[in-house]
Amino acid sequence: MSNYSLLIFDWDGTLMDSIGRIVESVCAAAASCDLPVLDENAIKGIIGLSLPEAIATLYPDLTDAITAEAFREAYVAHYLALDAEPAALYPGVIEGLQQFREQGHQLAVATGKGRQGLDRVLAGQGLTDFFDVTRCADETASKPHPLMIQEILAHCRVEPEQALMIGDSVFDLEMARRAGVDSVAVGYGAQPSEVLHAYSPRFAINEFSELGRWLRSVGTAEAGIYVG
């Protein structure tokens, strides 16, 4: 095993294929509140933030608290309607996570979702008790503030250099950098790899299975075992 004893995963766009639902729900909420429906890429650019921060970023001129709350309620209602049929995990996620546990890694989730939303999808996927710790944006500071990672490190009694953050947004990678934690960029989620590269990830993956192969290669190199 590599020196990364703790693997911290973002949820949407990293483990679960839910980016399309988030975009659709933001557009539906905007329409219901008579706000401009924004470009898909602009919406993808806020995925990872807490919902209040995402709304404020997308609509900085929206100072009416009543309208902001109506937007939040419309977003949640539309997302829940879509979630009647749960979104799928990306290919290889369950198998990969199980292998990481068997290899002795601690596993955590750091997400911009609220606690109620994360607990709902974990239950739907049969993963309620799977992770060592999960942290949500409505119970700590929103990404990219490092507090979410710092709380996970404290819970798992792990030093920053022993942890790895895996995420698909600049907020994930910036949060990791602020916490002194290495990161892996996920290129199949909300934001393209070329955007994430600016945040100096250790590695970039375009499918989940690549993470396990890279971790094994890192562990082999650290053990002084070379093939060639």
TrEMBL record:
Its cofactor is Mg(2+). One of its GO terms (biological process) is DNA repair. InterPro entries: HAD-like_hydrolase_sf, HAD-like_sf, HAD-SF_hydro_IA, HAD_2, HAD_sf, PGP-like_dom2. Keywords: Hydrolase, Metal-binding. One of its GO terms (molecular function) is metal ion binding. The keyword Glycoprotein does not apply. It holds the Pfam family HAD_2. GO terms for cellular component: cytosol. NCBIfam families: HAD-SF-IA-v1, HAD-SF-IA-v3. This is HAD superfamily hydrolase. It comes from Pseudomonas saudiphocaensis.
